[in-house]
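[Backbone geometry]
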Amino acid sequence: MPSVTVAIITRNREKLLEECLASILKGTRLPEEIRVYDNASEDGTPEMLKEKFPRVKVFRNEENFGLSYCHNQALSDFATDAILLLDDDNEVAPDMLEKLMARLFSDESLGIVLPLFLNAYDDPKSVCFCGGETSLWSGRNILRDKNFPKEQETYPTYRVPNATLIKKEAAQATGLMDDRLFSTMADEDYCRRMAKHGYRAEFLLSAVTDHKQEVKRSDARRLGLTNPLQTYIFARNRSVLIKRYGTLLQLIVFMLFWQPLFHVYYLFNMWRYDAPKSFLKAYWAGIGDSLRYVFGGKLPSLSEIRRRYEA
């Protein structure tokens, strides 16, 4: 039977992490190893882990280096046949890991399998996310239909967030994530690189997890801009992705037509909703770095990004 490691990324979410770990330990398929990568939590997370989950291996970063950095910590150091990269705001179904493992190792071409994400706070639970990709023409999110036929078993995807089971051989072929992308679209960049090595990613619709992210109705949340760092990443990463994986024609169409539309829309709405000046400054910095990457192939290092925004 193939072996598996569960690696959970957390920061200042003690209660969510505790519930996530408890759900894994109630599963019909227990992992050979559970690891927690703590991104400099300042709440009671370290104490809770020591008291309630003493057998869990804890790797504590003294600073918040971002999601992709922690994913790379996990991907660079696991000995099992697969690894589940799991965000702490998931409460997994008892049979989720068992089903994902069975599916992953049923097909040599599969490199990644994910569960169906349900809105944990809905009653009855609705589908939150079941896959998608970024259009290489427009940079828009293309999401899979949440109203899928009952007999459908899987969805192909390039977007692999939150609960990602990765086969070791596929991870070794692909290498690590680009931590300079920090979070948004870093998963898609990784998945598209993996596809170049002949491995597919898909959602398994019979495996589920409750995603505990409450919908916030603030203006910033509707725009997807929640802090200066996220605003910078939002302004920059579409261009990076299309430069790397699109054709020259797709890049030209995006840069001349779609990208200006995105910038006008977001800058206008930041002005309209009186966003802090730090958000506007970060967005303009993202625009500048996107152009430097498209025309010069250069991105700031993770340390430089963190220095700017004290992530």
About this structure: The longest strand covers residues 200-211.
